[in-house]
Structure formats: structure tokens, C-alpha cells
Amino acid sequence: MNNNSLKNIPYSVLDLATVLDGYTAADTFKTSLEIAQQSEELGYNRYWFAEHHNMAGVASSATAILIGFVAGGTKRIRVGSGGIMLPNHAPLIVAEQFGTLASLYPNRIDLGLGRAPGTDQVTAMAIRGENFNSAHSFPRDVEQLHQLFSADNYGAKIRAIPGEGLDIPIWILGSSTDSARLAAEKGLPYAFASHFAPAYFEQAISIYRNNFKPSEFLKEPYVMACVNVVAADTDEEAELLSSSVKRMFLGVITGRREMLKPPVQDINSYWDQLEKEAVEQMLYYSFIGSAETIKGNLQAFVSKYGVNEIMSTSHIYNHNAKLHSNKLFAGLFS
Questions:
Q1: Structure pTM?
Q2: Distances from the Cα of 154 to the Cαs of 95, 128, 133, 163, in angstroms?
Q3: 3 state SS for 65-112
Q4: What family classification does the UniProt entry report for this protein (predicted)?
Q5: What local confidence, expressed as pLDDT, does residue 2 receive?
Q6: Spatial CA neighbour of 82 closest among 233, 191, 244
Q7: Rounded distance, CA 105 to CA 102, Å?
Q8: What is the pLDDT of residues 147-159, one digit of tens each?
Q9: From its phi and psi, is residue 47 left (phi > 0), alpha (psi between -120 and 50) or beta?
Q10: What is the C-alpha to C-alpha distance for residues 103 and 149, in angstroms, rounded to an integer?
């Protein structure tokens, strides 16, 4: 395997605007901007926020507002959504919001779209009301967004002002095989949530590549994989730091969602064997360790799956440790 295999791969960041135990959402937004500014200096390609609702430890519910905040505090890095959960919104509103962002920050805004609610069923009902089953309209809504962004839409009765005629790349997000077919059919780039849904990753990107139809947006398939990253000076330190993300995922599988907790020496005192296996299964595509350890594992991952871009998400409690992890990870690509 070519030791320089990471050199030509763009690397990016997914931020869930994680709220730390003992801190507030306002603190989170401040640190997110600092990490985005550092990421820009370190050559990261894009900085995305994910839409989630009704989660104590995740403050990225008003995703478009956060994108504007970070785009306004940076100069070059692309900023976008990973993703906007389209069934939660009317396509026209999304087109207007992202048209506004793209007008303020030209050629820097990405629109990643997901079909999941980004929350529990009760909250999804509160968001969507009578449109509760609107996930079934996802392909049609994506088509409508393309129409609203098209310069040819100027004669239509419904127009996105701003938005119409602007260059806003649309990505399809996936955590199962469903969206892979849609991304392939429409010839759009495909971003897979392998950081929490590893079971379908291999199958989904295979479906996407095998069924891809070239489009005006993309000539060849383009796969971005999102993975968990905890990098530190030693494997032991990284393992300690990773106890925070493991406890976070334990909260996901047990339904006890909390703010991100500080690291603990003995993670095994927090879970039983079944819970441990469930968390480790969800965290299968995680890169935890020193830069040297992660580099070997990441090169193997890239070689095996041929991904075009890597997106890292890092749930690390200590802000300086998170900045250091971000720096170590960027170093693997240069």
C-alpha cells in the first residue's frame, strides 16, 4: 500500500455542537468557532453541522444559523450541513435560507440533506405536524430544491429569493442503503454516517457506485465517509479521552442522553457486556490513538473502501485536547 495514500484526500469536520457537562450552548458555539478557525488554518476542506432536536447534549438544532455564524468567523473553509433533515422543512424555506447563506458567503456553502428526523418520534411529530410521513417525499423534495436553485426557475410562480441561480452544492446523506440509490440516480455526492451507522456502510457505497448516473453536478461517484476520531500523543491518552464518546453512545443505546461527560479511568464500570458490545458496534469506524496508530488504520480504511474524502467528528471533553486531536489528525494528510 502506498504510504502517501492520504496525501490526495480532502479532510473535513462534522460538528454536532456538543454541549459539555457543566457548560452551556453559548460556550459550545464559542468553541465551535475556535475549532473551525483552527481547521481552516490546518487545511481542512469543510466544516459541517448536523441538525438534531430535543437532545440535552447537542445544540445544533438551528443548523443554518450556526453555519452563518461560523462562515462569518472564517475566510476560506467551506461551511455546510451534515445535514439538514429535509422532511422537517419546506424545500422553499431551505432554498431561501441557503440562498441567503450563499449570497453572504459565495462559493463556500454546502447543503447536505438527510431524510431522518434527527430526533425521536414524538419530537418529529411536533416539528412536522400533519406532514409526519414526509420522509416519503424526500426524492420529490430534493428535486424541488434543485428546481428552486436553478437559474431557469425565474419564470415560475414560486421562486427562492435569494437562492435562484446560485451555486450551492447538494449532497445526499445516508445512514442506511435508502439514500444511496437516490444519490446515484440524481448523480449527487454521497456522504455516509459511518460514525454511528457502520453496519450499512459497505453495502450503501457499493449500491451508490454501481448505480451512479453522471449528472450536470458530478461526472463520477464521490463518497465522503464520516468517522469518529480521538487523537492524542499516546494511545493510552487517546483511550482515556475516548471514554467520553463511549459514554455518549451508551446514553444513545440506553435512552439516557446527557451532556458530554469528562473522561473516566475505568469505562467498564459504566456498562455491562451487552451494552459494551452495542457501543463498540456503533463506534466500529473510530480512529483512536496516537497519530502513528491512526495513520496506519486510516490508510487501511481508505485503501479498502476507496473513499474520496474523510470527515472526522470528535467528541472530546477538554477543549485543548480537542484542538490537539484536530491538529494531529490534519497532520496525517500532509
A1: 0.93
A2: 14, 29, 30, 11
A3: HHHHHHHHCCCCCEEEEEEEEHHHCCHHHHHHHHHHHHHHCCCCEEEE
A4: To bacterial alkanal monooxygenase alpha and beta chains.
A5: 41
A6: 191
A7: 5
A8: 999 999 999 999 9
A9: beta
A10: 12
Averaged pLDDT score across all residues of the chain: 92
Find the Cα–Cα–Cα–Cα dihedral 114, 120, 121, 123, rounded to 10°: -100
CA 228 to chain centre: 11
For residue 314, which amino acid is it?
Answer: S
Q: What pLDDT score was predicted for residue 198?
A: 87
For residue 169, which of 46, 308, 13 has the smallest C-alpha distance? 46
All domains of the chain in start order, with CATH: 11-331 (3.20.20.30)
Q: How far apart are CA 188 and CA 171, in angstroms?
A: 6
- Quick one: which H or E segment has residue 226? strand 223-231
pLDDT tens-digit map of 100-143: 999 999 999 999 999 865 556 666 666 666 665 655 688 999 99
Question: 183 pLDDT exceeds 60?
Answer: yes
Contact assessment for residue 38 and residue 325, using Cβ atoms and an 8 Å cutoff = no
